[in-house]
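Tutorial, part two.
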Amino acid sequence: MMREATEPWSSVELQGREREVALQNRAASLTLWISLGAILSMLLTCFLGSFRLLTDRKEPYLLILGVLLIASVIIFFVPSKKDERWLIVSSLLNYAGIGIAVLFLLKVLGLEIRLMNLAVSGLPAGAVLFGAVMFYLGAEEGSRKRLLYGGLVLLVLVSLGAGIMYFRENTEFWLCMAVCALLSCAGLGALLWTNADPEGRSIYKALAVSSFSVYLLLLIAAAVALFVAASGSGSSDRNKSRSKKSDSDKGGIFGSGSILGSIFGGERGTRSGYRVRTFWFPGYLWYFTPYTRYAAIDRMEGLSMEEREAQRRRYRSQRALVLGVVAVIVIAVIALAVITGRR
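Running the prediction step on this input gives:
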């Protein structure tokens, strides 16, 4: 890739702190869209599974999960050393594996996939992630990092709360919400790590590693669920002749009184000399962030101090209005998702 094609498009070439802020904003935008895409990909996989377009046998799922895992690892350690764009492919494979793993987990747990509940389960995590990134982009210098940490803490609470509610209600809505929040946590964590050194750390690498971590967690959860389901099935077969009525009352393997139900629904940067770095960033992010916007106003020619201050006040009013709208949208989306998902 030619260097000229990777430079930021702007009438003014950014240097120093402005360039660093622009790189941070670009990483935030990339994290937002990739994480939202990961949530959508996971939900779409579960959506297809609800129509029984995929087999109910467990072996094909395990084979696909294994192939995706191996391919992701190979791509991460081999071609991405020369071109970091391969890390995007690694992340996409991880997200595909996450979707298959969640679908496999839903089938092993015997959860009914209701389309409306499934559709809204990703909204809370997506809304919190969107709000955190937008507030981060529009924050003053001293509070940018704190807002990311605040969004991360809020997503952790969403994931934990959804997990607790799943143990109480045992529905696919809460399980998928917890996984979506976990994906968003991984995205914000990758963004925090990258923005500590935006020139030296790759957001692509951070997203690949964080998605791989979520993938492994879900694989472990699916393996545990499969093991417990198999154990419960074997125990049920051995005791079938002695306790048919008891087995019926407990609801089988996936019932509230089964072993599986008691666990899941009852008691419940290094720098590479060959890496291609891209410094393009969306222009609207450069305009929206206070630091770079104030710097742009200071560079305007032919304006008096009073006119410059008027420009700053108008910008602050516009930013406050945008962030207010974002806050209202986030709260409304979360409330709508929870109300709809619990029906």
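The radius of gyration is 24 Å. In part three we will examine how such features are distributed along the chain.
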